[in-house]
Design brief:
This protein is mostly helical and about 280 residues long. It has twelve helices and no strands. Helix 9 packs antiparallel against helix 10 and helix 11 runs antiparallel to helix 12. The relative contact order is 0.05.
């Protein structure tokens, strides 16, 4: 009897293991990517839909394989243009520097190969986005920042009615701020080493090139301080006043108000008189 029960239990265990194996096999076969054969009805649509699903799941490599298969196999597919953008999106999603470079190349190719496509505004924005995600800190080389800003300016100029415009303007402002911050730091360095003419030249350049610079309160203040040390109180006062007028909150606001009070209390310097003039 004991032997019989043991055999039954062993048989049930084997059956359970077999069922688990069959279940796992079914799951695996269900999740395995199926690439349709060339000529299959709606194969291009199938590839595009699977690629889109993979993008949504952040399965970047899988998505890229579907989109590339569509592009290479079905050159006349109505999904080909969107698949090209999908390839770029897969690189953009990966986010590595090498992937961002490859993504930017995909979007550039799209704009070259499909110059009249209705999705050009998307490719242009994502090209700029790929470049903007490669920028370095303001203390480092700003080549990528210049490149991203150029592509963003192109988007704003060419696609004024794009629904992506708010995102593009926000990214444009962030990118331009980075470039202006880089220039500001140079001017601030000149100020610290007491090269006041160099600081004035650099900071005026920042404000002229980017009047909307988000941190221009800092530029106003350092510029005014530099002019004060160059004994140009009138010009210094104008920048202190701009800071006070434009910013309700700023780390420089209190000090700028103090400087204005100091300048108001400085007596006017009487004009010099020569021989025969008044006061001689």
């Amino acid at each position: 009897m004991i032997a019989y029960v043991s055999v039954v239990r062993r048989s049930l265990s084997l059956l359970a293991l077999l069922l688990v194996a069959m279940s796992l096999s079914a799951c695996a076969s269900g999740s395995k990517a199926r690439i349709p054969t060339a000529g299959e009805v709606d194969a291009d649509k199938f590839l595009f839909e699977r690629g889109t699903e993979a993008i949504q799941k952040k399965h970047w490599l899988e998505a890229r394989e579907y989109f590339r298969k569509l592009i290479d196999t079905y050159p006349r597919s109505t999904f080909r243009e969107e698949a090209k953008i999908g390839v770029g999106d897969s690189f953009l999603g990966e986010g590595r520097v090498d992937s961002l470079i490859l993504g930017a190349n995909e979007f550039r190719e799209f704009l070259t190969y499909f110059p009249l496509d209705e999705n050009n505004h998307i490719a242009q924005y994502k090209l700029a986005q790929s470049l903007a995600r490669q920028v370095l800190s303001p203390q480092r080389d700003q080549t990528a920042t210049h490149d991203a800003l150029r592509e963003l300016d192109t988007f704003v100029r060419n696609y004024p009615r794009s629904p992506l415009m708010p995102d593009a303007l926000k990214l444009q402002r962030e990118t331009r701020d980075l470039l202006s911050e880089s220039e500001f730091l140079v001017g601030q360095f000149y100020f610290r080493i007491r090269n006041y003419p160099g600081a004035v030249q650099r900071l005026r350049g920042v404000l002229e090139a980017d009047p909307g610079y988000t941190n221009r309160d800092a530029a106003y203040f350092v510029l005014a301080e530099s002019l004060s040390r160059m004994l140009q109180p009138g010009q210094a006062k104008s920048y202190y006043e701009m800071l006070v007028a434009e910013f309700k909150e700023s780390a420089y606001l209190l000090k700028a108000k103090e400087r204005l009070v100091e300048l108001e209390s400085v007596p006017a310097v009487p004009p010099k008189t020569g021989p025969g003039g008044a006061g001689s």
